[in-house]
Amino acid sequence: MTIEKHERWGDPGRLPDDGVLVRTDAEASDAMGAARRDRRDPPVLGLLGGDLARTCGATGDEARLRGDEAQTLPVDVGEALVDGVLRHFVAHVVVRRPFWRGRVLAVMNAQYLGRWNVAPRSHPNDGRLDVLDADPPLGERWKVRARLHTGTHLPHPDISVRRVTGAQFDLDRGTRVWVDGRSVGAARALSVRIEPDALHVVV
Predict the structure, then answer these.
(1) How far is CA 150 from the centre of its chain?
(2) HSE of 152 in the Cβ direction (CA atoms, 13 Å)?
(3) Are strands 20-22 and 45-47 parallel, antiparallel or unpaired?
(4) 3-state secondary structure of 41
(5) For the CA atoms of 189, 25, 119, 93, what is the dihedral angle to 10 degrees?
(6) How does pLDDT run across 140-187, given as a tens digit for each residue?
(7) Residues 39-97 pLDDT 10s
(8) What value does the CA radius of gyration of the chain take, rounded to a whole number of Å?
(9) Is this model's pTM higher than 0.70 or not?
(10) Pairing verdict, β 11-12 and 71-82
């Protein structure tokens, strides 16, 4: 079940012997995608790094994942259909032009994008994706960027924020898509949806 407000999240539990250690969001989504292609349950993932790991409070300490202080958490997983190609993501999908010009679209399952606190209200087990759609003028763009690391860029009149279970987007020519930090090239169409409680992670 997805988490409700003020509910406890997760339970004590160390990484099982067949668990998989991942150091990036891309490694985590690769493990999820491989399990789905093979029609098997995804492995429990030990989070050592990445934006999902930071959102979940991971320390990057491998010994902790195998000790009594470890916590096992259920998390949602996103699905992105990028020009008809299905990809899984655990943290985010980012759509933008080179040098961050023009419209920027961020579909967030995690709270963070690198050092930026992009979606302060996002929770990876609430059954929703936080969609930020922004195209501020140049002067405002620099102000937004300066506030991203603290999450104080929101609310902003040039940034729309929606919390959704699924959405579709038509993209301009030349727009590139990044899935969990990995470029998948330019695209013209993007659909996203959330799969609640699809994965368990250990932090």
Answers:
(1) 18
(2) 4
(3) parallel
(4) coil
(5) -10
(6) 888 898 899 999 999 999 999 999 999 999 999 889 999 999 999 999
(7) 999 999 999 999 999 999 999 999 999 999 999 999 999 999 999 999 999 999 999 99
(8) 17
(9) yes
(10) antiparallel
The helix or strand, by DSSP H or E, that contains position 119, with its residue range, turns out to be none
Nearest to 15 by CA among 60, 71, 61: 71
Cα distances (angstroms) measured from residue 135 to each of 3, 55, 62, 131, 142:
32, 26, 40, 13, 12
Q: Position of tokens 């994942």? A: 65
Centre a 10 Å sphere on the Cβ of residue 37 and count the other Cβ atoms it contains.
Answer: 10
**Composition of the chain by helix, strand, coil, percent to 5:** 20, 40, 45
Residue with tokens 């209200």: 121
Distance CA 94, CA 190 (A): 11
Residue whose pair of structure tokens reads 């300490």 in the numeric block: 61
Distance CA(43)–CA(199), nearest Å, equals: 8
